[in-house]
Specification:
Layout lengths: L8 H12 L5 H8 L3 H14 L2 H4 L8 H12 L5 H8 L4 H12 L23 H13 L4 H8 L3 H14 L19 H36 L1
Helix pairs in contact: 1-3, 2-3, 3-6, 5-6, 5-7, 8-9, 8-10, 8-11, 9-10
Length: 226
C-alpha cells in the first residue's frame, strides 16, 4: 500500500465543494484523491456542520463533558447513525464518537477532553427488583428521559433504557433477575408484585395524561390559528 497522502485545508474544501456543487459523485472524487469514501463523507459532514473552520482549526479539539454526554446519549437513543450524530454535534470524526460510546458501554468514565474533568456518566451497578421498578416507572412518567433517570438513580443510561424496554415487552417478569446465587425473585409475594404493577401502571397513566395535555394544547393552538 502506498504512502498515505495528506491534503491541505484548501484541497479538502475544494473537494467538498466539487461534490456539493454537483460536479462529481462522492465516489469519483474519493477515487481521484485516493482516499476512502467514508473519509470524504466525513469531510462533507464536517464542512456542512462547522464550515471552513472544520479544516483550519486544530484537529485535537477539546470537548466538554456535557458535549460528550449529549452526543453519546443521542446515539444510544437511536437518534441517528454515528455520522448523523457527528454532524449534529460538530464532532470531527466518527472514530471519536465510537470511542466515547465504547467507553460508556464498558462502564468506563467519560471525562472532558484535555481537562481532567470529572466523570459524566454513572458506572453501571447491580440493582434490586424494587430499584428496577422505580427506574422503569420514572422513565415512563418522565417522557423516557433515560439520561435523567440514570443520574437520579445512580445507574447507567443503558440500564435505565433496558429496564424500561424489558418492562414494556414482558411486564413485571422482565424486571426480574435470577442470575447468580442471589435468591430468585420468583419468590416475590403476590403483594409485592401487585405493588410493583400498580406503581408502573401509575407511571403509564401519568405519561398518558401528559400526552393528552399536549394534544389538547396543540388543538387549542390550531383553533386560534384558524
Amino acid at each position: 500500500m502506498g504512502r498515505k497522502v495528506k491534503y491541505s485545508p484548501e484541497e479538502k474544501i475544494c473537494a467538498v465543494n466539487e461534490y456539493l456543487d454537483g460536479k462529481a459523485s462522492m465516489q469519483s472524487i474519493a477515487n481521484k484523491l485516493g482516499i476512502d469514501f467514508n473519509a470524504l463523507k466525513q469531510w462533507v459532514n464536517n464542512y456542512e456542520a462547522i464550515g471552513t473552520d472544520a479544516f483550519h482549526t486544530p484537529t485535537n479539539k477539546h470537548y466538554s463533558k456535557v458535549e460528550k454526554e449529549q452526543a453519546v446519549n443521542a446515539y444510544l437513543a437511536g437518534e441517528g447513525s454515528y455520522m448523523d450524530i457527528c454532524k449534529r454535534f460538530k464532532i470531527r470524526s466518527t472514530k471519536q464518537l465510537r470511542s466515547w460510546v465504547k467507553k460508556y458501554n464498558s462502564h468506563e468514565e467519560l471525562k472532558a477532553s484535555g481537562t481532567g474533568g470529572t466523570a459524566i456518566m454513572t458506572k453501571g451497578r447491580t440493582t434490586t427488583f424494587d430499584e428496577r421498578v422505580e427506574i422503569a416507572s420514572y422513565c415512563i412518567s418522565h417522557d423516557y428521559n433515560y439520561a435523567e433517570a440514570a443520574e437520579k438513580f445512580n445507574v447507567s443510561y443503558q440500564q435505565a433504557r433496558n429496564y424500561t424496554i424489558k418492562y414494556k415487552e414482558k411486564g413485571i417478569v422482565g424486571l426480574q433477575d435470577n442470575r447468580g446465587r442471589r435468591k430468585p425473585e420468583e419468590s416475590l409475594s403476590e403483594v409485592e408484585k401487585l405493588k410493583a404493577e400498580l406503581k408502573l401502571e401509575k407511571a403509564k397513566r401519568i405519561q398518558a395524561e401528559m400526552e393528552a395535555s399536549f394534544l389538547k394544547k396543540l388543538d387549542e393552538i390550531e383553533r386560534r390559528r384558524g
